Amino acid sequence: MDDFERLVAEGASVPVDGWDFSWFEGRATEERPPWGYLRLISERMATAHAALDIQTGGGEVLAKIPAAPPVLAATEAWPPNLAIARTNLAPLGGTVEHVAEDAPLPFPDASFDLVVSRHPTVTDWTEIARVLTPGGTFLSQQIGAGTNIELTSFFKGPQEIPEHWLTGYRVARAEAAGLEVRDVREATLRVVFHDVAAVIVFLRKVIWTVDAFSVERYRERLADLHRRIRRDGSFVSHAQRFLIEARKPVTARRS
């Protein structure tokens, strides 16, 4: 088996359940945003009474907060992540509900004074506003417009960035739902892949980067990428991130 086939076989066999990226150590790197999402949510969780984490993945990030509020809930859409999230959040007293990404949240109005979400695929601003208490906060680190467009374009050709990925569009949607946007920050982060196996695992895990990705479908491009990495030493892409913090007004706006 040559080097390419060995790396392809390895990349295709790595489990991709949960949201743990420790396998990539030594194989790929991604810069972290400067604001420190875990630190920010930890500070807010320490003073919250009831908190919700939307699309928690396997609960890996939320499980790292040092102190949990009296009520801690999470949602997750992908069934393989549910058991992982429940195990990770049990020490914090957290519960995890199976909720489709585009489904209404199964909680009463004004249930939470803090709602957080890291890298949601869908953000339902109206539902977030509904479950927040007056004066409650939504804090989210989201995928920015054009994230890893170099990697997507390598496999699928030139790409246009849809309007709904633009930061301004999402800020406008938050405001239209009645939220007051308090903070918006953006960052461009360098992503470096050192072998084709790392690219395969990434595309199997972060499935929106190249939709309908499979090794069989993109074998020729993977072979091209393998040769390029061998020639250049790595493949470099760039992730876009933005942080948004919004507050539900204590008093409803007058029409």
Automatic annotation (TrEMBL):
Keywords linked to the UniProt accession: Methyltransferase, Transferase
Annotated GO MF terms: S-adenosylmethionine-dependent methyltransferase activity
Any single GO BP term: methylation
Domain Methyltransferase type stretches: 52-139
Domain of life: Bacteria
InterPro entries (alphabetical): 23S_rRNA_MeTrnsfrase_RlmA, Methyltransf_11, SAM-dependent_MTases_sf
UniProt name for this protein: Methyltransferase type 11
Species of the source: Catellatospora bangladeshensis
